[in-house]
Amino acid sequence: MNAIIISALMGVLLMFTSIATKNKQVIKNIALVALLFLLICNIADTYNWWSIKVDTKNMFVFTKFGYFFNSIAIATTLIFVALSGNDIIKIGNYAAEYLVLMFFVLCGIAILSSFNNLLMMFLGIEIMSIPLYILTGADKKNLKSNEAALKYFLMGSFSTGILLMGIALLYGTNGSFDIQQVMPSQELIKHAPLLEVIGLVLIFSAMLFKISAAPFHFWAPDVYDGSPSVFSSFMMTIVKAAGFIALINLFFYKAESLAHLWRILLFVVIITTLVIGNITAVFQQSVKRMMAYSSIAQAGFMLFALYATNDTAKEGILFYAAAYSLATIGIFAVLARMDDYTLEGYNGLAKTQPMLAFVNAVCLLSLAGIPLTAGFFAKYYMLAAVIKTGSTVGIVLTIIGVLFAAVSAYYYFRVIQAMYFKEGNSKVDNVTPSFKYALLVLAVLVIFFGITPDTLISWFYF
Amino acid sequence: MISVLLILIPLIAGIASFLIKGNNLHKQWAVLASLAALVVSLLGICGSSISLNYDANWIPTFGSRFSTKIDGMSQILCLLTAISYPLIFISTYKNEYKNARSFYGLMLLSQAGLMGVFVASDALLFYFFWELTLIPLYFLCSKYGGDRRIAVTFKFFVYTFVGSLLMLIGIVYLYYKTPHHSFALADFYALKLSIKEQGFIFWLFFIAFAIKMPIFPFHTWQPEAYEETSTAVTMVLSAVLVKMGLFAVIRWVVPIFPDAVTHNAPIIITLCVISMLYASLLAVKQDNFKRMIAYSSIVHMALMCASIFAMNNIALKGVMIQMFNHGINMLGLWIVADAIEQKTGTIKFSELGGLAQKAPALAILFFIMALANVALPLTNAFVGEFLMFSGLFQYNVYASSLALLSIILAAVYTLNMMQKVFYGNTLPATENTTEVKRNVQFSLAVLSIIIIVLGVYPSPLINLTKDTVLFIIGK
User: Fold this and answer.
1) Predicted ipTM of the assembly
2) What is the total count of domains within chain B?
């Protein structure tokens, strides 16, 4: 309960800092301390050292899995603010508000990682999404940012409507919001009323929207491309991962009984997501837009965990979330300070800024899933989880998956080629030594988890 | 411990190379480091008191260990790697590279990766090194070389990357088949897979290795890559890297999927014979020194691959010693190619001629390399190819007779090249050539000695193959 309550509380408190001081740096530093405090509180909760106890009437079930995801989300947000904090406060006049909204997003994420009740899930998704609509439009004078915000808001509300419809149908057939009672078991699924099946599919579709899986991905490229670069990286990583955690919480209870129903559905969804994300990313000239499509493609890979629904998948999605977030945050930290973030803009970065190019290369290799980086073990986990199910369809799925992983290498390596092998005069603004060293730490983390993933995984034993 | 040293020396030296400042310092550093690795490798073969293998926990959650196993075949390939690198560094000592620090650093890192591949006995570790070799080479190939290098290297990268990912699926599949979920080579060997499973997983592995070798129809990356990349890197590719594919088939495919190997042998041997004849004919038609060597390399690799699948004692022995010999011969040919390119600025046969008058030492040394490439008796390649052909003959007369045609064609294109480049009248490009430098002569002389010694007295090498052959065929 710590993470939920304290993140909301911190958010409210932080709002007042903008009254107390006009110095944006101070506000940023306070936010960093608050995030660190939040992380410590969550860890204290994980190991039962200290926790706020509230009788939730079984609307929440706190598991190690949920706690670990909270820790990962808070820790990556901490790294994110530490790296890109200066870009966040530069976007507009309301530095404190942007940071506050991120705390509310974290509150929503904490709810999503531990809900046991459809109402709570709905609340979590809304608490997470509404601040994001605002953050997307944070750059008020930029037309693209406004367009993105409006698009995101309209589409988001639409998916919320679908989600509510699904919840209502499930409630109508079962008379309960409790997940254990709502999810049908093996025998029941065959005789389940049509309305219940429709309800499940509607909830599933609404969640697919949140994680930008095809065919509900159309908002993603425009929104990620339009919103300020710093916030796109936040949305692509931590928020998207939270969507996956919600899906897993929702569907893992009766995984076995539902498997045969949704694996057909998932098979189609995964393949379309991989095809659309990867193939479209190949044709992008802007690195930011390419990353938007690549994030759709990565969602396709993360869906493998949902397909597999076993312990390996659960561990894997946590590892994937951490690895993917670290890499994407690193790339966007540099991208946000580039003069020109088309591919040509990256030409010759290795000459002008060798350190930034190196970190970028490590992050891109990680996204491509090359060994020695965290991304390799993330991909490994997803493949292993699906192969563990032992079905032939699963193996076919992994083969299709790796073929698209090779396609993804194509567009990630194009950036590396631009940085290292092409002549050019790439310019990056405001490269301070502290920024460089923070990036280097990130790259070291990516490599460290790539060599000894155990340091991260050994926590996960829940 | 030897195996760990073989990996660690180039790895640490490679990382250190990025930090060294100074002009010629990294060259000396790289030569020194690679010589140190050579000494360790020789110590391993001579049977010093230091233990060969090493075993430690790596990722306990997956049951993956940092464990190595050196058998005779690993010894041969480690030795080949260890000999190649110092010779590459010495023979290209005078070449200037922009950003030399990273050039030598990446070269040494690739050596660490190669050594890792040859000693790893844990599938995940093996996969790790397999990919690790690729990354420094990707950067090396894209950074140094001809105009089309970036696109060509990328083709090479994507090909091998697809292959390795397919192999990863196979590895994970086998992992879940082992009783206690482990990646250990011994546990993989102990698996009893059904014929249907074998047939499926076999291809996942084999495609990865076939791309690396490369055999028809996966070979298209190779001639272009050899032609475009800088010669020092090409030497690594053709002398050592392609051996990874053959090595992996013997260690990771044949003992694990015995039924699939016998079942698929006719298909694969057919593919190999096709690639031998096809590449030989292409080699005859080339006007480009580098492309010709590239095609001739495909011929030899395909012969070795076919011999593995003949699955008999003689052929397998032949493959193992030929892996070493082929590496040595390729190295020699590329050193000559590089020397000619540095001297005359061209590698087209039509623009070269009469080099023997200008550079007699080079001509004599090259003559030995050329004879070895044709596998003439008294050269090292003769022993290997003789064993392989007799093994292949036992398996299937027709296949081996067709394959034998490639030897005739080899004589055609090699001697033709010899004649065009070194004899005849000098042409404008070769008019002002002088004798090659001492460092090139030295490395070619070392290679010639190895060629002749192993041609006359191959038994030390054959003895090394005994334990591996016994294990594979005995099984």
Assistant:
1) 0.89
2) 1
